[in-house]
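TA notes, week 10

Several of you asked for a full example with nothing omitted. So below is the full record: C-alpha cells for the whole chain, then the designed sequence directly under it. When grading your own attempts, check the secondary structure regions first.
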C-alpha cells in the first residue's frame, strides 16, 4: 500500500508584511510594508472579536435552553398544586420558548461552521504559523553583594591564599609572553583575585630591597597585568575569571594609546615600589640603631656615646687615653658644679664606674675609705656621684703630703692599672 503524499497546499499562501513583491518606483516600499502589516493586524482583531461574540452568544443560548428545560421539569413536579388550565398554559409557553432556543442553537452551530471555515481559508502569517505549547519565564536575579570583610578577615584570607598558591603565583610572575600568561591563568583560574595581586606587589618590594632590580621589573609587569584584569572585571561588573581572555585579546592587538597607558601605569608602579623599598630599608636601619643604642645604655639610662660627645675636650682626652690620674686631675680642675654634672652623667651612662667602697663578708660588713683610682669595666655596677667629690678631696690632701710619704704611695701596688681596664667608647 502506497503512503499518502503530504499536502503542502496549506503553505502556498502565507501572508508576510515585508514580502518582496515588486512595487511601483513612486511607492515607498517601507511604507507599503507598514500598511500591509497594519491591515493584517486589523483583520486579525476583527476575526478575534467575531469569535468572541460567537462564543458569548452561543454560551447564553445554552444557558437559556438549560433554564427552560429545568422549568418544565419543575412544572411537571408541582402539577397537582395547580389547576389544569394554568399548567397547560405555562407548559405551552415554555415549549414555544424551548423550540425557539433550539432553533437559535442550530443557527449558532451553523455560524460556528462558517466561522471555522473562514478561519481555515485565512492565510497564515508570522503570528498564526505556530502557537506556544507552554512557556516559562526565568528572571536571573543578581546575587546580593557580600558584606565587606574586616581587616582581620582579609589578613586571614591573604595568609590562606599564600599558603596554598605561593608557588603558582611565583611561576606566573616569571612569564614574559602574553600567550603563556593567558594559558596559565586559564588553567589556574583561582589565581585571578586580589590576593594574588597583593602577593605579587609585596614580592616586588622584597626584590627591590634585595636589589634584584631586573627580576623586580619582570614581576612588576605581571602585577600590572593582574591589576588590569581585576579593573576590567569591576568596570564590567563581571567575574574576574571571565575577563582573562578578553584582556589578553585586547592587549595583544591594542593601539598605541592603550599600550602607552599600560606602560605609564607600569612605570608608576615601579616608582612606588622603589619608594616603599627605600622606606622599609630606612625603617630597618633606624630599628637596628635603636636596638644597638638600647644595648649600650648605662645603668642610669643614658647613652655613653651621646654622653661622651657632650663632654669637654679635656675629659674626652682622658677617656680616649684611658688615663685615670689624668682624669682625676681634669675633674679637680673643673668647677665643682660642672664636675658634678659631668661625673653624674658619666656614671649613669657607664663611662665612669668608681670602685666599690663597701666590702661584704658572711659575718661582718666593713666600710673602707674611698680608693684613689677608678676603672671602666664592661659590666657597670650602680654607684653614687659623691665619689667624685671624695676623689677631689683626696687629691687635695695628697698635695700636702711629704716627699717620703709620696714616694711610699708611688711604690704601692695600688697605683698599678687595675685588671679589666676597658673604655666603653670605641
Amino acid at each position: 500500500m502506497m503512503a499518502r503524499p503530504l499536502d503542502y497546499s496549506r503553505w502556498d499562501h502565507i501572508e508576510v508584511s515585508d514580502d518582496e513583491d515588486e512595487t511601483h518606483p513612486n511607492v515607498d516600499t517601507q511604507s507599503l510594508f507598514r500598511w500591509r502589516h497594519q491591515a493584517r493586524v486589523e483583520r486579525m482583531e476583527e476575526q478575534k472579536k467575531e469569535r468572541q461574540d460567537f462564543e458569548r452568544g452561543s454560551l447564553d443560548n445554552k444557558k437559556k435552553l438549560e433554564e427552560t428545560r429545568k422549568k418544565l421539569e419543575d412544572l411537571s413536579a408541582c402539577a397537582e398544586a395547580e389547576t389544569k388550565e394554568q399548567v397547560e398554559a405555562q407548559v405551552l409557553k415554555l415549549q414555544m420558548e424551548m423550540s425557539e432556543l433550539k432553533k437559535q442553537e442550530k443557527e449558532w452551530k451553523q455560524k460556528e461552521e462558517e466561522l471555522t471555515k473562514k478561519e481555515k481559508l485565512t492565510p497564515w502569517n508570522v503570528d498564526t504559523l505556530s502557537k506556544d505549547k507552554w512557556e516559562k519565564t526565568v528572571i536571573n536575579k543578581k546575587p546580593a553583594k557580600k558584606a565587606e570583610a574586616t581587616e582581620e578577615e582579609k589578613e586571614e584570607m591573604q595568609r590562606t591564599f599564600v599558603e596554598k598558591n605561593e608557588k603558582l603565583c611565583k611561576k606566573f610572575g616569571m612569564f614574559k609572553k602574553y600567550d603563556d600568561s593567558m594559558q596559565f591563568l586559564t588553567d589556574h583560574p583561582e589565581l585571578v583575585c586580589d590576593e594574588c595581586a597583593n602577593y605579587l606587589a609585596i614580592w616586588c618590594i622584597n626584590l627591590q630591597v634585595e636589589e634584584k632590580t631586573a627580576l623586580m621589573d619582570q614581576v612588576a609587569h605581571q602585577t600590572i597585568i593582574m591589576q588590569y584584569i581585576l579593573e576590567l572585571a569591576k568596570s564590567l561588573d563581571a567575574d574576574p575569571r571571565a575577563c582573562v581572555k578578553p584582556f589578553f585579546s585586547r592587549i595583544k592587538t591594542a593601539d598605541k594609546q592603550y599600550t602607552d597607558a599600560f606602560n605609564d601605569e607600569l612605570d608608576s608602579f615601579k616608582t612606588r615600589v622603589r619608594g616603599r623599598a627605600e622606606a622599609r630599608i630606612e625603617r630597618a636601619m633606624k630599628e637596628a640603631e635603636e636596638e644597638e643604642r638600647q644595648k649600650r645604655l648605662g645603668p642610669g639610662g643614658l647613652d655613653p656615646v651621646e654622653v661622651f660627645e657632650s663632654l669637654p675636650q679635656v675629659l674626652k682626652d682622658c677617656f680616649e687615653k684611658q688615663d685615670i690620674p689624668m682624669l682625676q686631675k681634669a675633674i679637680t680642675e673643673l668647677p665643682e658644679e660642672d664636675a658634678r654634672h659631668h661625673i653624674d652623667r658619666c656614671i649613669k651612662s657607664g663611662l665612669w664606674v668608681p670602685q666599690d667602697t663597701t666590702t661584704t663578708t658572711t659575718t661582718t660588713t666593713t666600710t673602707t675609705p674611698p680608693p684613689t683610682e677608678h676603672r671602666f669595666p664592661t659590666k657597670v655596677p650602680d654607684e653614687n656621684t659623691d665619689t667624685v667629690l671624695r676623689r677631689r678631696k683626696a687629691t687635695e690632701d695628697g698635695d700636702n703630703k711629704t716627699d717620703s710619704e709620696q714616694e711610699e704611695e708611688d711604690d704601692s701596688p695600688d697605683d698599678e692599672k687595675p685588671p679589666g681596664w676597658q673604655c666603653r667608647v670605641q
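Residues 357-386, 399-426 have pLDDT under 50 and may be disordered. Use that as a sanity check on your answer.
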